[in-house]
Amino acid sequence: MSARTDTEALDNASAKGVTISSLRIALVEKLEATQVEIEDISGGCGQAFEAKIVSPQFVKKATLARHRLVNTALKTEIAAIHAWTPKCFTPEEWEKKQAEQTSSSAKEA
Q1: Which has the closest alpha carbon to 18: 100, 76, 99?
Q2: Considering only CA atoms, which of 2, 70, 84, 69 is closest in space to residue 39?
């Protein structure tokens, strides 16, 4: 169950020790993630996170199925925070995205 208030979320996160590092470790261990980028978008209180996750377990899965995998892997952690926004990619999708960003950056220069 997610926290109902910011105060409850903060208390839960403090008690359960949810950090960017702990989220990253769980994703690597449980989803075999090859790339994990997590940003605290809460302004520093550690209650809202946005993540980019690359895992071979996402291959041939729709967005909803990918999110369910992540949410299941982080069930305890998600219950202790206020907001969680995952963006899930297969290794191939991630490589393509990185190549596109590099290409567009080169065009701007």
Answers
A1: 76
A2: 84
Per-residue model confidence as pLDDT tens digits over 7-39: 555 554 444 578 999 999 999 999 999 999 999
Rg (CA), the chain: 15
Q: In the numeric block, which tokens belong to residue 38?
A: 């997590």
The Cα–Cα gap between 86 and 38 comes to 9
Name the band, by pLDDT with cuts 50, 70 and 90, for residue 4. low
- Gap between the Cα atoms of 6 and 52, Å rounded: 24
Fill in the amino acid letter for 45: C
Instruction: Tell me which H or E stretch contains 88.
Output: strand 83-89
The pTM of this model reads 0.79
Mean pLDDT of 75-96: 95
Q: How far apart, in Å, are the Cα atoms of 19 and each of 10, 80, 92, 97?
A: 12, 11, 28, 27
DSSP state at residue 2? -
CA distance linking residue 51 with residue 11, whole number of Å: 22
